[in-house]
Specification:
With 221 residues, the chain is mostly helical. It is built from nine helices and no strands. The protein starts with a helix and ends with a helix.
Length: 221
């Protein structure tokens, strides 16, 4: 029953996004604008391109991901959809897992599409370096989404939710971002960081467990 419910909720979110594409396209286009700003700023100031790919990648993910997470939750508030979901015969933790998987699918796909663009903009070799960056990238995005899917509920019913959410969310994801940035930077240098991967796995486990346990309480509030 629980797995079926999670599948139904996940299918609902993904079908809605496939029809509208508003969240994915807005986040991806925003990331593309950030990359262009980085590129032209670096070109005009003669900055070493080798130092920029990792920075540009995670700034795109942090800002675009924050926008995307806020929009996916706001869509559920239209016509009281969340109130209807709360009446479903389920544990609220399953609702959290469904929202997490949907958000991770969208942001994870966008992040993977950014890798060839990063390679193009900053003369990064599209070879094993990119492949080694994928595990750290996806684990970092997973931790980012695990925290965001939980914290977005805290600000949902406030009048300044679009401002308050990033103020609360971004400081909480600092440990994940530090580990993920270090992991992908090492990968771009042609090495693989097992320590970074292990840290990200632990952070994901902690935040996913907290999300599953606390989602019902925050949702009711």
């Amino acid at each position: 029953m629980n797995s079926n419910l999670i599948s139904l909720l996940l299918a609902k979110d993904l079908k809605r996004e496939l029809r509208s594409k508003e969240i994915f396209l807005s986040s991806f286009l925003f990331s593309l604008i950030i990359l262009c700003i980085f590129y032209f700023a670096a070109t005009s100031s003669n900055v070493d391109f080798a130092k920029l790919p990792n920075t540009a990648l995670w700034i795109c993910i942090a800002f675009s991901g924050t926008i995307g997470l806020h929009r996916t939750h706001q869509a559920e508030l239209v016509n009281g959809c969340y109130k209807a979901l709360m009446l479903a015969p389920r544990a609220a933790g399953n609702l959290y897992l469904a929202k997490y998987v949907a958000n991770f699918s969208l942001l994870g796909l966008m992040s993977l599409l950014l890798l060839p663009l990063i390679s193009l903009f900053f003369n990064l070799k599209f070879d094993t370096q990119i492949a080694m960056a994928v595990p750290g990238l996806l684990l970092g995005v997973s931790g980012f989404v695990a925290i965001g899917t939980l914290t977005v509920v805290i600000t949902a019913n406030t009048r300044i939710s679009d401002i308050l959410f990033p103020v609360i969310h971004l400081p909480l994801v600092v440990p994940v971002l530090i580990a993920a940035v270090n992991c992908t930077q090492i990968a771009f240098q042609g090495k693989f960081s097992w320590t970074g991967i292990q840290i990200l796995c632990i952070l994901n486990l902690v935040f996913l467990s907290l999300g599953y346990l606390l989602y019902e309480f925050l949702l009711e509030e």
